[in-house]
Write a structure and sequence with these properties.
Largest sheet: 7 strands, parallel
Structural class: alpha/beta
Distance between the termini: 28 Å
Shape: globular
Helix content: 40-55%
Strand order of the largest sheet: 3-4-5-8-9-10-11
Number of helices: 11
């Protein structure tokens, strides 16, 4: 497994996005555990989660609990950086709400600590800006958690360039990651990716294959990815992740998966070399 860095931690160049294992349409627990274990066997050392990755109102943190169980039952579990998030909520009716208040973020962090069974969270990220709360106050809460030793590293998610620079200032230069949506279907985070490259901050694309319901349609929706995939004898999804990795050494994709075979295909992208002409075709999409 090739590696990249988040802060001072070396992680697998591709991580596992665990959300599909806990929201609507999720598989049974046995398949989820098998998926996480397959990822660990293949060398994954980064798993992305959030307290909001659950389906019903009474099961906040379902995904964190699932990951803790999977890591505890695998001999490589202690070598994994778990990245979780706070600031998003799911009332249980399928909707997503926000609470970026410092009080809530600190309470959410305590809940994540309990569910993950750790003394300090490896990477804690502010999930999404709350328009009702000044951004500086939300990030200030993350800074406090960092100063208190509740979290080892701090990141932000769904941020624009101004917010990235602001967070970096508030955190005293300790911002290590930005997790934004980025895929062939969602290219508007290019400025954030470029800024992270400039600042040496890890950029974690979420839904890199287009999302749970559309990942399988990547090749049919974007012809260049299908053409390159056919020429290389691999899946369009693998080509997509290799394309992202080629953009910058700070890029660490976190494709979602709920089947062992899916994450294993994604992880094979670290060994897929794309030529300059192929990358130019993909960039032109």
């Amino acid at each position: 497994m090739h590696t990249r860095r988040i802060g001072d931690v070396e992680v697998s160049a591709i991580g596992l996005g665990a959300m599909p294992m806990s929201i609507e349409g999720r598989p049974d627990e046995a398949r989820s555990l098998a998926t996480i274990h397959a990822a660990l066997d293949a060398g994954v050392t980064l798993i992305d989660t959030a307290d909001a990755y659950h389906r019903d109102a009474h099961e906040v943190g379902h995904n964190e609990t699932l990951i803790a169980k999977a890591l505890a039952s695998h001999d490589r579990g202690k070598n994994v950086l778990v990245a979780t998030k706070g600031g998003h909520l799911r009332p249980g009716d399928g909707s997503w709400t926000l609470d970026g208040s410092p009080r809530y973020l600190k309470e959410a962090c305590e809940g994540s600590l309990r569910r993950l069974g750790v003394e300090a969270i490896g990477l804690y990220q502010f999930h999404r800006p709350d328009p009702r709360v000044p951004y500086a106050e939300s990030v200030g809460a993350i800074r406090d958690l960092l100063d208190e030793g509740k979290i080892r590293m701090a990141g932000i998610s769904n941020a624009d360039p101004q917010q990235i620079r602001q967070a970096q200032e508030i955190l005293g230069g300790r911002l290590v990651s930005v997790q934004n949506q980025f895929s062939p279907a969602f290219r508007s985070s290019e400025p954030e990716l470029e800024l992270c490259d400039e600042l040496g901050i890890a950029f974690l694309p979420w839904s890199p294959l287009g999302g749970i319901s559309r990942a399988g349609e990547l090749g049919s929706a974007y012809a260049p990815f299908a053409r390159v995939a056919e020429a290389q004898g691999v899946s369009p999804q693998r080509v997509c992740l290799a394309w992202m990795l080629a953009k910058s050494p700070v890029v660490v994709p976190i494709p979602g998966a709920s089947r062992p075979e899916t994450i294993l295909d994604s992880l094979a992208a670290v060994d897929l070399e794309l030529g300059s002409e192929e990358l130019a075709q993909l960039d032109a999409v």
